[in-house]
Design brief:
It is found in: Nucleus. Keywords: Cytoplasm, Hydrolase, Protease, Proteasome, Threonine protease. It catalyses: Cleavage of peptide bonds with very broad specificity. GO terms for molecular function: threonine-type endopeptidase activity. This is proteasome endopeptidase complex. The protein is α+β, with helices and mostly antiparallel strands. The protein has one domain: Aminohydrolase, N-terminal nucleophile (Ntn) domain (Glutamine Phosphoribosylpyrophosphate, subunit 1, domain 1, 4-Layer Sandwich). The protein is 29% helix and 29% strand. The chain contains 5 helices and 12 strands. A 5-stranded antiparallel sheet has the order 10-1-2-11-12, with helices on one face. Strands 5-6-7-8-9 form a 5-stranded antiparallel sheet, covered by helices on one side. A hairpin with a 2-residue loop joins strand 3 and strand 4. Helix 1 packs across helix 2.
């Protein structure tokens, strides 16, 4: 199904260009479930329009969507998929699997790839396959991963996530991993900030955690020069 959007190739007069948006979203699987999280900042260029936005959208009781990119594009995808998921569960009289919901997102994103600018992560838990994380970047591809990140802040934390993630994470370690990754991105990316929201999804259900701005582990990262001076490095 195609959904409405701008017409590709149409020239937009100066001052009417689509706004640049940014965020940081992170999800990882652990033995027994998944943890997903997002920052709370919504920005339009240099203007911060919201510092406590909820970028985690429920698609089913056991599946959630992390949204990044153009906010209205990502929101309309989550609304449509949540609607179709509810219809499917009513017809089957059973909870849908995470894979089925992820493929609904993929189909919606791919069929409208010329109109949508949404980089999405689908994560959840089902009894058949346990905790699962799927990345669905702009363009509509779908890939199952052990961990996934996206948004403007993800540029700064690829190395941290690659070096720090382990397949044998406990729930607490997975929560700490996602929180640390978000905090590091928020300290470096001006389009990420505000609060941190976490959802832990396992056999017992979905559990939400909220960290206020003053509870985020890192408030700022040292500049390269300050870090060099602190370690005694001779400059110049």
């Amino acid at each position: 199904m195609n959904i409405g959007g701008h017409t590709p190739g149409v020239f937009k007069p100066k001052g009417q260009e689509a706004p640049h948006t940014g965020t940081t979203i992170v999800a990882c699987a652990y033995k027994g479930g998944v943890v997903l999280g997002a920052d709370g900042r919504v920005s339009v260029g240099n203007y911060i329009s919201n510092r406590a936005s909820n970028k985690i959208a429920p698609l089913a009781d056991n599946v959630f969507l992390l949204r990044s990119g153009s906010a209205p594009d990502a929101q309309i995808v989550s609304d449509y998929v949540r609607h179709y998921t509810a219809l499917l569960e009513a017809e089957c009289q059973a909870p849908v699997s995470v894979e089925v919901v992820a493929n609904l997102v993929r189909q919606m994103n791919y069929n409208n790839k010329d109109n949508l600018v949404g980089a999405l992560i689908i994560a959840g838990y089902d009894a058949a396959s346990g905790g699962q994380v799927y990345g669905c970047p702009i363009g509509g591809a779908l890939s199952r991963e052990q961990w996934a990140i996206d948004g403007s802040g993800s540029t700064f934390i690829w190395g941290f996530c690659d070096a720090s993630y382990r397949d044998d994470f406990t729930k607490e370690e997975a929560q700490a991993f996602v929180t640390e990754a978000l905090a590091l991105a928020m300290a470096s990316d001006c389009s990420s900030g505000g609060c941190i929201r976490l959802v832990t999804c396992d056999a017992s259900g979905a559990h939400h955690t909220y960290l206020q701005g003053d509870q985020v582990p890192h408030t700022d990262m040292p500049t390269p020069i300050a870090a060099a001076v602190a370690t005694g490095m001779v400059l110049g």
